[in-house]
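Section 3.1: Structural characterization of target chains.
Under the original work plan, the team committed to producing a structural model for every single-chain target entering the pipeline before any wet-lab resources were allocated. The record below documents one such target. The sequence was received from the expression subgroup and is listed exactly as submitted; it comprises 554 residues.
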Amino acid sequence: MNIEDVLKLVRPNILGLEAYSTARDDCGSNQPEIFLDANENPYNNGINRYPDPHQKALKAKVAEIKGISADSLFIGNGSDEAIDLVYRVFCVPGASNAVSIAPSYGMYEVAAAMNDIEFRKVQLRPDFSMDTEAMLSAADSKTRLMFICSPNNPTGNSFPVEQIEDILERFGGVVVLDEAYIDFSVRPSLTSLVKRYPNLIVLQTLSKAWGMAGLRIGLAIADPAVIALMSKVKYPYNINVLAQKMALMKLDEAAKDKAVAEIVGQRFRLEKELAKCPEVKGIYSSDANFLLVRFENPDEVYERLLAGGVIVRNRSKVSGCEGCLRITVGTPVENDRLLRLLSSSVAEPVEATTPGMEILGERHIRIVRNTKETKIALELDLDSIGGSGHISTGLPFFDHMLEQIPNHGGVSLAIEAKGDLQVDEHHTIEDVGIVLGEAINAALGSKLGMARYGFVLPMDDCDAAVLMDFGGRIDFKWNAEFKREKVGDVPTEMFSHFFQSVCAGAKCNLHIRAEGVNEHHKAEAIFKAFARALRMAVAKTPFPYELPSSKGIL
């Protein structure tokens, strides 16, 4: 097909549509200094102006990374927007139809239903290979779109380029190739085929390998004429100011490649360890960041994992995926917890991880520390809102206190600690404090854009105040009296020692004061106040990114 043939597939009303435009589109090379055209609030707060509807800066950066021209790139509010738009551009409601492999990503069918388009599924073979002839046979003169997800969700496998090209040559409509998981595959992206096949639209995303799911940035790569049509139909301000700014900041190829290597390595590890579980009946090869795993009793396994705090995707009722759970590859600490819930034969997590510190991302750290007294694996992400991972120290009350940090601090924290509790609690509590402090210090990095200082928290009959400053100077003050020898299984003298260890590891000023009657409440108030102070002290504001010091250095 040539581009003229593709344009004949477009809905006539879309071809004749005059897109919404703004006064700023008509400025040309003139750069206004005062904006009185869009009825915006004139007082600058960083988000009072409408975003660039054409995402010029972001589009230029993504195009550079992808090695394509900017006019071949559409940026949408997630790939879901692009999926919806191709229906609206090419399909006549109530008349056209679309064909898709099955099982596959559910939004192809949902978007078809929203646009009143018949959706035809072609089942993959039992080995999840694609039947080209069946796909082409399912199409007729009213078929406008064909969806192929490669690597496919939920099966994880990719399809040969020769098969994709065969369909492109023989199908009389537009092929939408969804490459959401392509960064995890050994196969290259097929975006280079866009120049040869005007009837090809390749979808990609910044949600998976790039780690920006919360920003909702989806990509469509196609012939410039097709991209122009999608841009004409989209809502004018589909990518907000913060998403554009944050995406530009986080488009770091080296960091992405490092994360992908870690995830792929963990995928191989999970596959190997899951094969040891007696409940596992099959593991399908994957080119993605997940594994499709067949279990003897998938519903029971799903409920057990959920009860243990781990959620996976139950696909056991999906045709072709009977008995299967789709398991996303997590961090090593998260994967350890999953494996422990599935099989007692799996090695203990703190023994399965290499000692040392690893930077997993901006403000995301993993530390493994082994001594004669303790073995500790700790993972901290200051920018995650996922809350607590598994926290286990062998001291239930200490675990309960530590859980206040992610729950009230707005960070993600997972801790696995095994200590010489047969001696006493000292080494375990002290070493967890040291490692937590070191993780906070390492995760803070340059400290650009972060806030500072503290929090006061009342709790029933008690109140606690925690002041902290990550300026690099160490100073610890403790003013909290406990009359009981222990609260739960924790000696009360160890509360101050724990926070002193955190202070030393984090290289910070940490001043703690608490008073009240109930010793449990007092301890909990301190940990909660620490969490809230940490939340304030490490908070980053989108703009401006400055050091919180008049000296310009911390």
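The chain has a mean pLDDT of 91.
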